[in-house]
Amino acid sequence: xxxxxxxxxxxxxxxxxxxxxxGEDLARRLDxxxxxxxxxxxxxxxxxxxxxxxxxxxxxxxxxAGRTMPPLLLDDDEAxxxxxxxxxxxxxxxxTAGGLDDAxxxxxxxxxxxxxxxxxxxxxxxxxxxxxxxxxxxxxxxDHLATLAAASADREIVTFTYTDVRGVTSPRxxxxxxxxxxxxxxxxxxWDTDRADWRVFRVDRMGELLRTGGRYEPRPLPADxxxxxxxxxxxxxxxxxxxxxxxxxxRVADVLTYQHADIAAHDDRHACVTVRLDTWQWLxxxxxxxxxxFTVRAPADFRTGFExxxxxxxxxxxxxxxxxxxxxxxxxxxxxxxxxx
Length: 341
What we know:
This protein is of the alpha+beta class.
């Protein structure tokens, strides 16, 4: 069955190019016999794919463009991944009509009709037994994402209004290059024609998005990837902190889930960590939750903050112990000192 599935996927992939193929050509490409090819063509038709056939000399097989989506040719794992992906996407947003999360939820509810009958009971069982915790994230329009993707593919200039972090709105005219999904936000990496420089825009802050029909000549990206360029911008102004933690990388990663961090194994018992932070206070909380020994190499102002907090914490613990000792000896402690819970 695995060989049949692999062969069917190869056949479908070939036909989806839109070209017409003779039976002999298809059989040679798929390394199969004409008889097996004919059976596979009939299987595709049974799945709902409109395969045209012209017999005789000059005959061909061709996948006709249809108006409706046929059943998906997915194996079990792919169907489960599709369902879980839609569930996760549907839980990240403001849950308002017209947003990407709303579209994912609608697709999540309709996926049965696009699956082979044998998978429908299993998918229905997964959906019935699955709850997804909602994560707060800005709503983004599926139409915006599709428009930017098409304009990027066609090297087409787009215009839009953009509201920055200060609430100031301005018109923009850009060459769109890449879209990035990072930290539950959608971003566009683009060349801003008015500023003659690269810019990253939050898609949820765009309005009046239009394709202009004008084309642009592509430039080399300003980094190895759009993700790298975006992360450099997000890290701008932050300070680097290096740690050696007495814990495996997986445990450290659980604590630093929502922080950009480079984590690698140092040896069997330690992990090397590099983070970039706005303030030292954030790291104190993360390390407290980690509950492991560590060493820190940080900028001077961060080290000062760590030292002041450590003294403050130690003083608080020491004073509390002294109060308890005085109370045990019958001596009065400081007035107003909070009682034990």
